């Protein structure tokens, strides 16, 4: 969720007054940090995952499943364990936006050995089991992207009621009790985003039109206490949502990599960017929102809209008067520019950035690409500020920089080293939806990490125009996009050639003597598994890389199981989580073909999902026939002897 500062949160009025103060000092802090650390070299590969979980409470007698608002209680116990033995805990636990959510990471980052891939799943299992020991008999911890009936009547335990006329969100559907109460940042963000925007956030997802779905589909929101604002924002034939919780209350799977230096971090940032929509579609897991089947498979539009603090002027609905810029995207969206020299010619979308901040960064000796990237992030205001953190020492602190950096929630994040830390330059990969089982989540994690090794080892080039990445992000969220959509992808990934600088503005991003496009349209099956005679495929590239490595038998078996899952998902042999959920709902005996996911359907869906994640049901259409890895809690002792420092 980003920077968690302790202290007293400021109102939006006071935060707004200090917006320029935060920007000015945040830039100073970045300049100081950059010059102190830009020449840092030799950091080894370290990486880790973040898995977000939902706590669900079942009532078997009434056949209901609700979110359990006990995240704070569980975190108190888990964090006490960390405080008592910080060097030896196997998992770290942090709060998330929802009072029903927690986030788990490995206790220490993984390293550069292939054997580290074999301990990821074991650690994920440990995390789940550690929380399960603290749960009540009718509670379960689930790695579920979106709770299907979030925002429906009586969806929480203990029971809560929304108050659309007061509180942080003014939501018709989400009570403020749903927001994590253990840190003031979360309610403060909710309130300040709404106040800055000048109205509630408005999220509209196309409803899935079944044979009995009302047409047009229009909700009467007055009965819920709407004064007219929501009815005016809700679109016909769409599922309407009006609160930050609908997006930030979703769960995801994220990865962070440490690079050996700033140059490598910038290369990874750029090369992974075109893979973001591919992995979003591949991990699609959230077709149900506010108790309705929608015509999308992913959370991205929901979460983007849930924190969209742009004013009407910034959204281009009113002429600019009180604001500086018309901003095309929410602060939660796909990235807008590449950072490496190799990527620069493909920055074909005009980048909105603060020219004064850009010039200040350039004058401080920061190159054009990084200067415009930071100046772009800093067109945003701070939306959460604490009184104790207003005045800082810019030579040692970086909280004002991180305040803006950490609330630009984009598909990729370029992360400078923290002050006075052993941590190096990092890149965060953020698009993936969380999967039901530890096996699936470990497979996705290991697949992406192996891709980073292949990219750097073979010096591959996946870069396509930013405009085409944006188009791919739009496609990736659609119903069954994995199999229905074609995605722009680079044809020749082995060449480092880029179009000459003047051609950066060409809509087709053409290069070479005959101006042939560097990208083509491919299915995800072709991107992942290859297209004979035209494209090698990501999995074959990984397998070729692994063939040159010294891999122990157990790790080899585990990785092969992971790659097989990815291959079969991409080919359509296995369902995505979203497709499995959609099929479960539409074939449920209680389903009335009206797009409604009732309490009873939700109960059966989540009960079945729990049995799948526990291994009680072997769901072959989701996981295949063989999905048993040889994961273990530590790397082989022989490897430790050979590589004692890793």
Which properties best describe this structure?
646 residues; two-stranded antiparallel sheet; alpha+beta; 12% strand; 19 strands; single chain
Describe the structure.
This protein is α+β, with helices and mostly antiparallel strands and 646 residues long. The protein is built from 23 helices and 19 strands. Strands 1, 2, 3, 4, 5, 6, 9, 14 and 15 form a 9-stranded mixed beta sheet that branches. Strands 7-8 form a two-stranded antiparallel sheet. Helix 11 (355-363) crosses helix 12 (368-377). The longest helix is centred in the last third of the chain and has 21 residues, at 438-458. The protein is globular, with a radius of gyration of 24 Å. The two termini are 29 Å apart. Residues 500-514 and 641-646 have low confidence and may be disordered.
- Estimate the strand proportion: 5-15%
Our Rg estimate from Cα atoms comes to 24 Å
Task: Please state the structural category.
Answer: alpha+beta
Arithmetic mean pLDDT: 94
Number of helices: 23
Helix content: 25-40%
- The beta-strand count equals 19
Query: What's the N-to-C terminus distance?
Result: 29 Å
Shape: globular
Question: Could you give the topology of this structure?
Answer:
Elements: H1 12-17, H2 19-37, E1 46-59, E2 64-68, H3 71-84, E3 91-95, E4 101-106, H4 120-132, E5 139-142, E6 156-157, H5 185-197, E7 203-206, H6 229-233, E8 238-241, H7 245-248, E9 253-258, H8 262-272, H9 276-282, E10 288-289, E11 292-293, H10 300-306, E12 332-333, H11 355-363, H12 368-377, H13 399-405, E13 409-410, E14 412-415, E15 426-429, H14 438-458, H15 466-476, H16 481-484, E16 487-490, E17 510-511, E18 516-517, E19 519-522, H17 524-529, H18 538-547, H19 553-571, H20 577-586, H21 599-613, H22 620-623, H23 637-642
Parallel strand pairs: 2-6, 12-13
Antiparallel strand pairs: 1-2, 1-4, 1-5, 1-9, 3-4, 7-8, 9-15, 10-11, 14-15, 16-19, 17-18
């Amino acid at each position: 969720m980003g920077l968690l500062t302790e202290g007293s949160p400021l109102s939006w009025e006071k935060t707004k007054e200090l917006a320029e103060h935060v920007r000015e000092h945040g830039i100073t802090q970045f300049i100081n940090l950059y010059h102190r650390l830009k020449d840092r070299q030799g950091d080894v590969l370290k990486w880790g995952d973040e898995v977000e979980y939902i706590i669900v409470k079942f009532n078997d007698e009434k056949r209901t499943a609700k979110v359990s608002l006990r995240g704070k209680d569980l975190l108190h116990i888990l964090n006490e364990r960390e405080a008592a033995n910080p060097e030896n805990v196997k998992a770290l636990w942090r709060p998330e936006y929802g009072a029903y959510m927690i986030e788990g990471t490995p206790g220490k980052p993984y390293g550069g050995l292939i054997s580290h891939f074999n301990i990821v799943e074991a650690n994920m299992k440990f995390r789940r089991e550690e929380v399960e020991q603290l749960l009540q008999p009718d509670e379960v911890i689930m790695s579920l992207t979106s709770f299907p009936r979030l925002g429906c009547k009586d969806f929480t335990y203990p029971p809560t009621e929304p108050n659309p006329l007061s509180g942080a969100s003014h939501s018709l559907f989400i009570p403020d009790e749903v927001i994590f109460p253990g840190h003031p940042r979360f309610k403060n963000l909710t309130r300040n985003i709404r106040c800055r925007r000048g109205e509630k956030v408005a999220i509209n997802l196309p409803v899935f039109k079944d044979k009995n779905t009302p047409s047009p589909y229009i909700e009467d929101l007055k009965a819920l206490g709407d004064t007219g604002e929501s009815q005016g924002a809700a679109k016909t034939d769409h599922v309407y949502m009006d609160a930050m919780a609908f997006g930030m209350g979703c769960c995801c799977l994220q990865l962070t990599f440490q690079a050996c230096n700033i140059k490598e971090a910038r290369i990874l940032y750029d090369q992974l960017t075109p893979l973001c929509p591919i992995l979003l579609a591949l991990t699609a897991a959230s077709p149900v929102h506010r108790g309705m089947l929608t015509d999308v498979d992913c959370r991205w539009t929901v979460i983007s809209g849930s924190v969209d603090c742009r004013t009407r002027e910034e959204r281009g609905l009113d002429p600019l008067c009180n604001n500086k810029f018309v901003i095309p995207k929410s602060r939660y969206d796909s990235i807008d520019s590449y950072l490496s020299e190799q990527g620069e010619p493909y920055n074909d979308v005009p980048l909105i950035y603060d020219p004064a901040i850009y010039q200040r960064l350039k004058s401080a000796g920061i190159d054009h690409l990084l200067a415009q990237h930071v100046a772009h992030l800093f067109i945003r205001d701070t939306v959460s500020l604490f009184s104790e953190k207003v005045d800082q020492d810019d030579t040692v602190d970086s909280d004002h920089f991180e305040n803006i950096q950490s609330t630009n929630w984009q598909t990729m994040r370029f992360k400078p080293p923290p002050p006075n830390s052993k941590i190096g330059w990092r890149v965060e990969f953020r698009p993936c939806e969380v999967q039901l089982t530890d096996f699936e989540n470990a497979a996705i994690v290991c697949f992406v990490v192996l891709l980073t090794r292949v990219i750097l080892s073979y010096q591959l080039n996946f870069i396509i125009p930013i405009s085409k990445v944006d188009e791919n992000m739009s496609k990736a969220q659609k119903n069954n996009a994995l199999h229905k959509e074609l995605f722009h992808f680079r044809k020749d990934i082995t060449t480092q050639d880029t179009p000459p600088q003047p051609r950066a503005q060409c809509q087709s991003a053409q290069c070479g003597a005959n101006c042939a496009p560097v990208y083509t349209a491919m299915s995800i099956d072709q991107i992942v598994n290859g297209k004979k005679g035209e494209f090698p495929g990501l999995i074959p590239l990984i397998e070729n890389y692994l063939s040159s490595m010294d891999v122990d038998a157990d790790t080899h078996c585990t990785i092969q199981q992971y790659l097989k899952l990815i291959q079969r998902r991409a080919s359509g042999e296995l369902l995505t989580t979203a497709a499995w959920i959609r099929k479960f709902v539409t074939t449920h005996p209680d389903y009335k073909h009206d797009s409604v996911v009732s309490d009873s359907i939700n109960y059966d869906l989540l009960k079945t999902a729990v049995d799948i994640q526990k291994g009680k049901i072997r769901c072959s259409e989701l996981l295949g026939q063989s999905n048993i890895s040889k994961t273990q809690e530590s790397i082989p002792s022989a490897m430790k002897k050979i590589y004692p420092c890793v």
